[in-house]
Each structure stands twice: as structure tokens, then as C-alpha cells.
Amino acid sequence: MSFLDGKSLEPLDGSIAYLGGERLLENRQIALEASRLFNRVWYLRGELAFKQTDLLQAPERNNDDTRAQFAGYYFLDGTAHYLSANYRFNAKRAEQFRFDYDGHRFGVLYNRRLSDWATLKLDWRYEERQYLSGASTPASGQRLDERERWRVRLEIPMGKRLELELRYEHRDYGSNLESVDYTDNRLEARFTFELL
Fold first, then answer.
1. N or C: which end of the chain has fewer CB within 10 A?
2. What is the per-residue pLDDT across 82-112, written as a single tens digit (0 to 9) for each?
């Protein structure tokens, strides 16, 4: 569907991933989306999705994930220059209760096409995950994760099917589970080639 279409139902979306020749995971998802463009300036979108993931190497982490997402866009100059804000709630329920959590995520994005050769994207995201079981962090009570990410991307088309993306990302992932509490910085260059 295009960026500004009205509503859609994705009957089924699925993927299978392999690592080292062995099947790693399987995903299945069904989603219902509704959207509306107001006065060529405001665009609102909502989605309700149900996703099922099987991790074949760690079956205790197999899970069902129910998500509700909402996003709003304010167009300063069509799709070449806009601001957006979004919110997502998801309830993940795994085979083992210690992996169950409810999560809230907020984000903002600034998009600006600088010219025919480059687009700049700046975004910030904050996520809080409240785990439902105290077993995940027995020394600290119930596990609570707070994840914050800042990201700068420069997208440079290199023909009709090839694109270069330069990216800087700062992540501050805080948690009372020490093994997943960290801060990092990433600098990446990605080439994307579109086959079809």
C-alpha cells in the first residue's frame, strides 16, 4: 500500500529465518490498519496486530504478541518534509511466564529531503517494559527495562534500485537485570539493493 492509503487488512504475514543452515525462528502475523489524511497536512494511522513467534532453538521463549499502534504525521512539504509521533502498546506472552511483559513505546521522527540525492531522518524513541514475573531478576524484584534510542540517518539513492544509508545511533538500555543494562554507540553504512 502507498503511504497515504485509507485502510487495509493484511490477511497473513509470515517469515522464516535460518542461521548456519538451521531454522532459527518463524513468525506469523495478522494486522488490521486504518488511516486518514486530513486537509493534506495531518495524517493519522492506527493498527491492531496479533503476532506469533516460534524460536526453534529456545522454545521456552515462543510467544504471542498483541500490539496496538497509533501514529500521527504533520506534513510541512508533503512527504519530502514532515514530523511524526507514535505510540505502541504490546502485551507479550511466552511459553515461560518469566518472559511475559507489557510494553509502552513512544517516538518522534523528523524527515527532510535535502535534495534529489539525499534525505535526512532524525528520530528519538523511548520504551518501557514491565515484566510480569519476579523470576526474571530474583535479586531485584520484577524486571523493568527502560530503553532510549537517538538516531540520525542519511539516505542517498545511487540509482533506481540501489541506496546507501549512513547511520549513527546512540542507545541507552537501562534495566535492573544487569546482563541487559548497557549503553552503546553505533556508526553504520548500509547498501540496499531492490530486486523487484
1. C
2. 999 999 999 999 999 989 999 999 999 999 9
